[in-house]
Structure formats: structure tokens, C-alpha cells
Amino acid sequence: MTTAALIEILVKVILLLGGVMTAAAYFVLLERRMAAWVQDRVGPNRVGIPLTRIRIFGLGQPLADGVKFIMKEEYTPAHVDKRMYVLAPIVILVAALTVFAVIPFGSVLPVDLGIEGLSEPIRLVVAPGMDVAVFVIFGLSSIAVYGVILGGWASNNKYSFLGALRSSAQLIAYELPLGLGILGVVVAAGSLDLEAIISAQATSGWWFILAQPLGCVVFVVAAFAEAARLPFDLPECEQELIGGYHTEYSGIKLLLFLVAEFLHMITAAFLIVILFLGGWHFWGLTGAGEQVGLVQAVLRVMVLSGKVFLVILLFMLIRWSWPRFRFDQLMALAWKVMLPLGLVNLVSVAILDQLRTAWQLDAWWSNPLLIAANWGICLLAWIVVAYAQPLIADNRPQQELELYDVDPQV
Amino acid sequence: MYLSGAAHIGQAVAGLWPELAGGGGLSAVAGSGLLAALPDWRVLVQSPTTWGLVCGAVALVLMLPRGSAVARVLGGVVGLVALGLLAAGQPLLSDWLAQGLFWILAGVTVLSAAAAVAMRSAVYAAVWFAMSLLGTGSLFLLQGASFLGVATVVVYAGAIVVTFLFVIMLAQPEGHATYDRLTWGWYAKPVSVLAAALMVAVLTTALPGIRQIDALAALGESGAVERSAGVLHPSHMARFGAELFSRELVSVEVAGTLLLVALVGAIAIMIQGRRQAQAEESAR
Asked: Is the peptide bond before A368 cis (omega within 30 degrees of 0)?
């Protein structure tokens, strides 16, 4: 590896880390403003440029928040396991940041800087051509579980431990539908490389949300659960566990946990966009091939970021419009609804893909036909699952109470 | 099968100690048996790897939990000496970046594996074990075997060790339990450490050309071609999948069936427990 290539990678890493961390900070502000909007408040709008009276809609708030977190007293309770207590936030943040090594944040940049050893055109992903990119994301999201479990255990506190237990059960349960949602896309695109998945959608022009609606629903629900966002925020649920696994944390360590959580959401948004919403592709705007001009390259980056932004807005809207699931509802949704739907989607995609190659369907009507067939199958599966698992709006416990030892005084 | 294994090790040993093979002692008997395939004792004594393995075994015995603090510190020192000796036996790579990465990852892997054995608290042992698995996965990545590396992390660190951790935390919330550390007798510890050292020794000798920079250079040409057709091929994953689901289909299916049996067994046990609880409930 030449020095120029090394510097290229370092520049990409610095740009990505800076961009993602800044974005996370401003998404916190956006989330607070949206919460205020939904709840008919004003929200944080005071902090502007320091030492002046200029407010600029509260855009200085993230900076003030960061300074507050760093300057706060960093209190370590006496009853914690010190080493694990320090390790947990580091693990979770490292895992959340490392994921961005394989996530493309654009297509290619067709500039020739005239430096020897530099790959040309520059690919806008830190680790280009990673043949197992999807798998890497999977592995790192499973490493993030360590941060939550260790944080909850090291805190030596019942609420933290409950949060950690719930969290690990939830993350492990929803990894299956997440994987099934991804697998449908991987079968259709024929690659585990995220860049290849985007270009498969760009060349055919059919985004995978159109081709596999059921896979998209399953994946989005599982991604919400993996990111522990409402309505799946049982690991923390402020109202009953006072923050769950990070109850005992304060100062910069708490900040690490919170940033990692936002990074999980950003990762989930990137994945939804890349896997199902065509990545950097937009009809008639960005083209599809590898050979692009500078304008098109910039357009692709902007299209991708715009889509990610919209998906994150959806995340935030859902947070304030959906009540939290109860734990048994959460598990029933994962095992009885999402898992069968994901399996149906995977099998139907695989069969239709085989039919396409077997009958050599390559006329203009073959794609819409196969997609219509897939929609039909998905609709059927949806109805069957809906009948088998009817939506229960009554949120009270459904089991007969005689089975349990219930104190009559309660 | 045993014979072919012995022949393989014989060839490996012949590759490791060429001066011996040149003397005609080894190449003639290679393949006739494991004992005959062992190299001359002078070569063994002169090799730093041998002493590294011996030191490592001693260090592990000293570092085991329930030993005294002095013994543990001593074990750590001997372990560092063992690491140095093992490192001295390895050739230097031409690329400083690859070399540095290799040293860091290998050091992390070996040290955290030792720490996993030496820790008193079961939770710490599990975390160190996970760290060592991450190091192993990264070493695979460094060699270009990206799927193997990531699969190690997903399957072992991401699923199995997390489950361990889960169970340990539920069973012993404070992380310490003496009954986990009891063994059958005094001999169990040294015997298991010795077995581990022997296994490492056999594996080290079974890797041909690992310490021969000339042999590596000679291998370079054909090795590069082989690697670019294998793990470094752009559609490596597709080929891997095709291989897995055509030639190894039976193994995949058998492994899947085993997991299914385990799943059914777990559900059966759970239902039985529930029935018992219900029976007790109605009897009361």
C-alpha cells in the first residue's frame, strides 16, 4: 500500500467522522425541535453565537450541550465495577463508528489530483470493494450489544440491569428479521457489497422498495428495533427504567452512550436508503453508470444525503406518534409476525429470481410482471398473518391472572 | 487418515528445518509415522519457538486464578518472555504497515487469550475471550479472508460469547464464583496447559514455510496467483456460496438439522417445565 493511498483513506475517515459526529449533534437539536413542534412548545431556540445576542434559531445548542456534558461533574458511583463501567461506553461508540467504514456516502468522485498511487476515480467509501460489507455491519451491530450488557451489569443497579437484559433480548430477537430483510435484497442484487447493491437498483431503475415491499417493511421495523428507537425503546424507556442501562452514567460517558444511539439511527437510515430506496440513484437525475461528470457525482452525494435526512425525519416523527410496545408484544411482533413475513419475502424473491433466469425473461414487461407477482404474494402473506395475529389495541395484560400468584391487595 | 496426517506433518517439519532434510535424515522417513517425523533434538533445542512454547506453558500455569499474587506477576513476566521468543522465530515482512498491523493484532489476540484463562471473574474472562476472537477475526481480514474474519466475529463474538455473558450475569450477578474454578485435582491444570502447549506446537510445525522467508518468496509467485483466484477474487463471496451449497451441501444440511434438533429440544424442555408447574399448581 502506497503512502498516497493511506493518506486518501485517512482523509476519508476524518471527513466521515467529522461529518457524522456533527450530523449527530445537529440531529439531536432537530429531534428536540420536532418534539417541541409535536407537543406544541417552542423548543430550544435561544443559543446562538456565544458572547453576542444573535440567536440563529438555536443553532448553537449542540455546541452548548457538548460543553455542558464535558464540563459536568463526572460522577462514578462507589458500587460499580470500575473497569467495565469505563469500557462499556467506549465499546458501544467504537462499534457504532466503525460501521461507517463500509457504508458508501456517495458514488465516485471523478477528479484526477495527479498524485501517483491514488485510485482514480476516488470511491466515496472508506473501505471500497468490501465484498462482505453487509456482513460487517451485522457483526459490528452485534458487538454493540456488549456495550449495553456491560454497562447495565457494571452499574450494579436493578434498573440498569433490567434495561440491559431487555436490550439484549430485543437486539438478538430482531437480528433475525433484520437479516431476512437484507437477504431478500442480497438475493436480488447478487452481492453483499453495498455499492453493488446500489448499482443494481440504479441500472434496473426499480428500487427494492418497489420490488420487495414486504422485505422493506420487515427491515424497517427491525432497524427501528435495532436502533432502540420508539416504539422499541424498551432498553431505556425513560418513564419506567429512568434511562435503563445508562442510569448510573453521567458526564462524558453518558454523552458517548447518547451519541452511539444517534449513530445507530443514522446507520439504520443509511441502510434503509441504500438497501431499499436506491442509494444515490434518482430517475433522470443521477444516471446509473460508473462514468460520471463532476456535477452528477455531487448530485449523487446530495441525493443520498437528502434521502437519509428524510428517513431520519420519519424516525423522529414516529417517535412522537407511536406508544411503546409492551415486552410480550415486542417479542410476539418479532417471532410471530416479522419472522414469517421475512421468510415469505425471501422465498418469493428467490423463486421469482430463479423463474426469471429459467424462462429467460428479459422483455420490457418482465420486470413489472415479476414485481406484480411479488406484490400479490406479499399481500396474501400479509392478510394471512393479519388473521393469525390480529392487532390487539387493548394494552392490558391478556393472560388469565389465576395462573400467577397475584396478591389480592394489589 | 492418521497416516496422511503424519505424512503432512512430516513434510511440514521438513520444510521448517531444511538443514535436517538436507542431511537426508528426515526426507527418507517422512510419512512413515509421527514419531519418525519429529525433527532432531539439536534443531529443536536451538529453535526459539520451542522455548517460547515451554515458557508460555509455564507462564499459563503460574497465571491461573487461585494462585498467589507473586506467582501471577511472575507468570506475566515469563509470558512476556515467551511472546518475545515466539516473535523472534517469525520472519519480517517487507511492508512496514502490514508488519505493524500483524504484530499489534497478533499481540492483542495472544495476550487477551491468556487473560481469558487467567481472569478470576467469569465476566472478565468472557470479555477477554471476545477480545481475542476480535483479534483472530482481524488477523483473518489481514490475510484477505474477509468472509472468515467477519464470520468469526458474528458467530463467536456476536452470538456465542454474548450468550455466555448473559448466562454468567444471570447466574452470578457479582461475577465471582468459587465453584466455577474447582477442578478434579491438582493434576488437571498442568495437564490441560500441557495439552494446549502441545497442540500449539503441532499446529506451528504443521504450517509449512511459516518461518522461511526464502520459501515464502518462492511461494510468492504461485501463492499470489492462487490467492487472486481464491480469497482475493472480486466475487469471492459468490464462489464461496456456490462451493458451500454444492460440494458441502450435506454438511450444511446436517449442521442445520443439528441446530433444529437443539431448538426442538429446548422447546420440549420448556413445555415439560410448564406442565410440571401446572401440575403442582393444581395439586396445591
From this structure: no
Give the chain A residue whose CA is nearest to the CA of B233: A131
Show me where the domains of chain B are located: 1-46, 248-284
Task: Give A207-262 pLDDT, tens digit per residue.
Answer: 888 888 888 989 999 998 888 887 887 777 777 766 778 888 888 888 888 888 88
* CB-based contacts of B216, cutoff 8 Å, min separation 6: B91, B209
| A136 in any annotated domain | yes
CB atoms within 10 A of CB A237: 19
The vertex-A218 CA angle with A214 and A219, nearest 5°, equals 115
The verdict on residue A409 lying in a domain is no
Q: Judge: A87–B127 Cβ closer than 8 Å, yes or no.
A: yes
Choose among A78, A246, A239, A236: nearest CA to A147. Answer: A246
Q: Taking a C-beta distance cutoff of 8 angstroms, is the pair A144, A178 a contact?
A: no
Q: How many domains does chain A have?
A: 1
Q: What is the mean pLDDT of each run of 10 residues along chain A (410 residues)?
A: 78 88 88 88 80 78 85 83 88 90 82 66 77 86 86 83 82 87 88 85 84 89 85 75 78 87 90 88 76 81 90 89 80 85 89 82 75 85 81 58 54
Which structural domain range is residue A34 located in?
3-396
What is each CA distance from B91 to A58, A185, B211, in whole angstroms? 59, 44, 6
Residue A341 sits at the chain B interface (C-beta within 8 Å): no
Q: Is A403 inside any structural domain?
A: no
**B267 has a chain A CB within 8 A of its CB:** no
Q: Considering all CA atoms of chain A, what is the largest pairwise distance in Å, rounded to the nearest integer?
A: 81
Q: What is the pLDDT of residues A337-392, one digit of tens each?
A: 888 889 988 998 888 888 888 877 777 777 788 888 888 888 888 888 888 876 66
Nearest to A194 by CA among A180, A205, A208, A206: A208
A143 interaction partners in chain B (CB closer than 8 Å): 134, 153, 157-158
Taking each helix axis from N to C end, the angle separating A82-98 and A133-154, rounded to the nearest 10 degrees, works out to 160
Supply the pLDDT for residue B260.
93
Could you give the CA distance from residue B237 to residue B279 in angstroms, rounded to a whole number? Answer: 53
Angstrom distance (rounded) from CA B226 to CA B65: 45
Ranges in chain B, pLDDT < 70 = 1-44, 46, 66-67, 90-91, 93-94, 172-185, 204-232, 234
- Centre a 10 Å sphere on the Cβ of residue A40 and count the other Cβ atoms it contains: 6
Q: What is the pTM of this model?
A: 0.81
Taking the CA of residue B79 and the nearest CA in chain A, the distance in Å comes to: 23
> To probe the interface with B, which of A6, A98, A131 has the most B CB atoms within 10 Å?
A131
B154–A142 C-beta distance less than 8 A: yes
Name which of B95, B175, B237 is nearest A131 (Cβ-Cβ): B237
**Is residue A404 one of the residues assigned to a domain?**
no
Task: Tell me the backbone φ, ψ of residue A123, rounded to 5 degrees.
Answer: -85, 135
- The answer to whether A335 contacts chain B (CB < 8 Å) is no
A84 and chain B: CB distance < 8 Å anywhere? yes
The residues near A208 (Cβ < 8 Å, ≥ 6 apart) are: A184, A185, A188, A189, A201, A215, A216, A275, A276, A278
